[in-house]
Amino acid sequence: MRESVSLTIDGQEIRAPKGMAVLEAAKIAGIRIPHYCYHAGLEVVGSCRMCLVEIEKSPKLQPSCATPVAEGMVVRTTTPQAIENRRSVLEFLLANHPMDCPVCDQAGECELQNYYMAHGRFDARHDEDKTKRKKAVVLGPHIMLDQERCILCTRCVRFTRDIARTAELGVISRGHRSVIDVFPGRELNNAYSGNVADLCPVGALTDRDFRFQCRVWFLGSAPSICPGCSRGCNIEIHYNRRFNPRYHDRRVHRLKPRWNPEVNGFWICDEGRYAYRAIDAPDRLKVPALRREGGLRRASWPEALGEAAGALQGVLEAFGPGGAAVMVSPQMSDEELFLARRLFGERLGIERIAGRAPAPASAFDDGLLVRADKNPNTRGMNIVFPGVGDCRDLIEACAGGSVRYLHIFGHDLARWNDPGRLAEALRQVECVVFEGAWDSPTARLADVVLPAAVYAEKDGTFVNFQGRVQRFEPAVPPPGEALTDLDILARLASALEAGPFESTASGLFGELARRVPEFSSLTWQALGPMGRWLADAGNDHAV
Ligand code: SF4
Ligand code: FES
User: Fold this and answer.
1) Where is 431: in which H helix or E strand?
2) Residues 435, 410: contact at Cβ < 8 Å?
3) Tell me: the pLDDT tens digits for 49-73?
């Protein structure tokens, strides 16, 4: 166990691990010491001087970010000298900082604005003109730089140098001419570039995608899990609390990384960060549809589910369970997979269940966060459906005419099938049901289309490649008439008179924990915001 020391911060006696910085130890006592250059995920440089505090027996103020705690230490963070230092640092930083808070995207989450309001020297003491520097410079596909707003904390430089290891950014020139910029001939275009906008404590580095779209105080936040690959990075979904479709507004405005030391640390990749656009994409399926006179026509939920249930019932009666097949997906939550198993496998006896599909040829592991497996729940699918079949074999079976009813969850089979051959194979199936969120060539080949919610619109769990079981929560409702997969399956079960089934995510997780040994040590509540390891997760936890 790590050795701890006892110290006093602002009169509160606390214990903190030996070696911890005073700034971090203060958080244990609920005290936030203002800071700029310090970030828990980056090397400590102690350059901004904002975090200076009084430490008994030290003749001068000390940087709390770079001073480790010691036994018997007495720290004071709000003495007149410490406050005066902060006021001086802020005055110095604002000497050349533009007063453009009303048009700055960082307003509302800007540490210069926030600290100044708390410590400000509101009557300016100088009349000199501010230095002019570059404004609104495009640094790369995602990031815009406003040099005048930069306070030279160098968080962004350390991120590109030490985390992304691409080192596109540097402090250029010396003294009062120092600025942040990309090195000549470079652009800020690495797979993690969006993180510098999160790191920048002021509005110097902003997200091109978010600029002028929404004020941060209109955003709500829901904890979630990125579904972009099997890492399962922890994220926050920031949604517009004042969404108004009349203004062609977006419901979800951005994704931010959520700290989880076991999975993604402080970061997410750009691919995951900007994938939020798919949530409100124009090709979302919003209403159920049925094939009529050669085309897909809008239908009500009872009509669509009645048709799917009638077709499945007919096939089961005429051919037995062997006539039907299901394509589950590693994009589904554990609870959705478990309900599909209970309905199709256990209740209806269907054995032909596939879910494995080829990864895109361009997919690769980058050694940091990005994984080649572009599904969030391959491990969960393999636990809920041990030995689950390969979708390619199932398509071959369709082409051979032995499948009469096929229920597809989300897969766009045209991604890895010749479209003509796929159409020919599915034509051999009497009833193809597509249950998914986005329109696709596969959805257009179906006889029944059931529009489903995406991860941002429902709750559930994924198991990442390391064996971490992680919960996600809904941020926004599904669009149009779309329903969650749990709701769709429960309604299908009732149309088949095969129910009732537990259909809440928390209730199904409880059943999973009772019936599937890998989940046996877990409860819905205990998962909390950071998740828990599967019982058999072994030693492959390292990020
Ligand atoms: Fe710090 Fe932002 Fe300036 Fe980079 S751009 S040095 S993160 S203030
Ligand atoms: Fe400590 Fe910058 S946060 S010196």
Assistant:
1) strand 431-436
2) yes
3) 999 999 999 999 999 999 999 999 9
- Ligand 1 — pocket residues by CB below 6 A? 150-156, 180, 199-200, 202, 204-205
In the chain, the percentage of residues whose pLDDT exceeds 90 is 90
Of the candidates 454, 445, 491, the residue with the CA atom closest to the CA atom of residue 307: 491
Q: What is the pLDDT of residue 198?
A: 98
Average pLDDT over residues 458-475: 98
Question: Ligand 2 within 6 A of 155 CB?
Answer: no
Distance, in Å, from the CA atom of 177 to the CA atom of 200, rounded to the nearest integer, reads: 20
CA distance linking residue 269 with residue 265, whole number of Å: 12
Task: Give the residue from 257, 228, 450 showing the smallest Cα distance to 331.
Answer: 228
> Is 38 a pocket residue for ligand 2 (Cβ < 6 Å)?
yes
Residue nearest to atom 7 of ligand 1 (CA): 200
* Among the ranges given (10-14, 226-230, 429-433, 537-541), the one the predictor scored with the smallest mean pLDDT: 537-541
Six token digits for residue 113: 């604005």
Global pTM? 0.92
Q: Distance, CA 423 to ligand 1 centroid (Å)?
A: 53
Ligand 1, atom 2, residue with closest C-alpha: 200
Q: Does the pLDDT at position 539 exceed 80?
A: no
CA atoms within 13 A on the CB side of 363: 14
User: Which of the listed residues 38, 42, 75, 85 should we mutate to test ligand 2's pocket, taking the one with most ligand atoms within 8 A of CB?
Assistant: 38
pLDDT of residue 543: 44
- CA 180 to ligand 1 center in whole angstroms: 7
Query: Which residue out of 89, 159, 200 has the highest number of ligand 1 atoms within 8 Å of its CB and is therefore the one to mutate?
Result: 200
pLDDT given at position 193:
98
